[in-house]
Amino acid sequence: MVNNQSINKTINCIIITVSDTRTIETDKSGQLIKQYIEEAGHSVINHQIVKDEMDEISEMINESLADERASVILMTGGTGISQRDVTIEVVERKFEKKLPGFGEVFRMLSYTEDIGSAAMMSRAVAGVKGRQAIFAMPGSSGAVKLAMEKLILPELHHLVMELTKD
Predict the structure, then answer these.
(1) Residue 71 — φ and ψ, nearest 5°?
(2) 129: β partners
(3) Which of 13, 14, 73, 113 is in the most buried spot, having the most CB atoms within 10 Å?
């Protein structure tokens, strides 16, 4: 049973955008994540852009995991299949537990609601490290909208409640 105190709790999030070309000002997907988080009554405590380089992505994830204020790390970009797309290879190494349902349902929804058979190229993933959740979404604003509206926001309180109980 979920108590009202956990339902109304503000959740602190970190946004990491993986891109060689975007800045905070041109990061449409990162700004969209921020908008969704804030409109839901939660807080973005950091928003960073990191290059499509394994070491830089790993370092930014480690810094985010070290921030004890953060419950959720929301990543966008670098999830495709090109040679430069290495987000998934880095982020999956950080997981203690995978949440395979996130990627599975994301691809199913992408297929049926948006992009059809191209959904098979999506490598969206989620997992847990300690008491923090990490979501890695594709870089398109359509993918972010789908993930945030249909998957992440509806379960955010429940997810954090499960991660923080003993």
Answers:
(1) -100, -30
(2) 132
(3) 13
- pLDDT confidence of residue 9: 87
The span from the CA of 119 to the CA of 117, in Å, is: 5
Predicted local distance difference test score (pLDDT) of residue 64: 98
pLDDT at site 65: 98
- Tokens representing residue 111 in the block: 């297929």
pLDDT average per 10 residues of sequence, the chain (166 residues): 52 96 93 98 97 97 97 95 93 97 96 87 95 96 96 97 91
Query: What is the residue type of 89?
Result: E
DSSP assignment string, the chain: ---HHHHS---EEEEEEE-SS--TTT-HHHHHHHHHHHHTT-EEEEEEEE-S-HHHHHHHHHHHHH-TT-SEEEEES--SSSTT--HHHHHHHH-SEE-HHHHHHHHHHHIIIIIGGGGGG---EEEEETTEEEEEE-SSHHHHHHIIIIIIHHHHHHHHHHHH--
What fold, for 11-164?
A: Molybdenum Cofactor Biosythetic Enzyme; Chain A (3.40.980)
Domain range list for the chain: 11-164
Neighbour-count burial of 55, counting CB atoms closer than 10 A to its CB (0-12 exposed, 13-18 middle, 19+ buried)? exposed
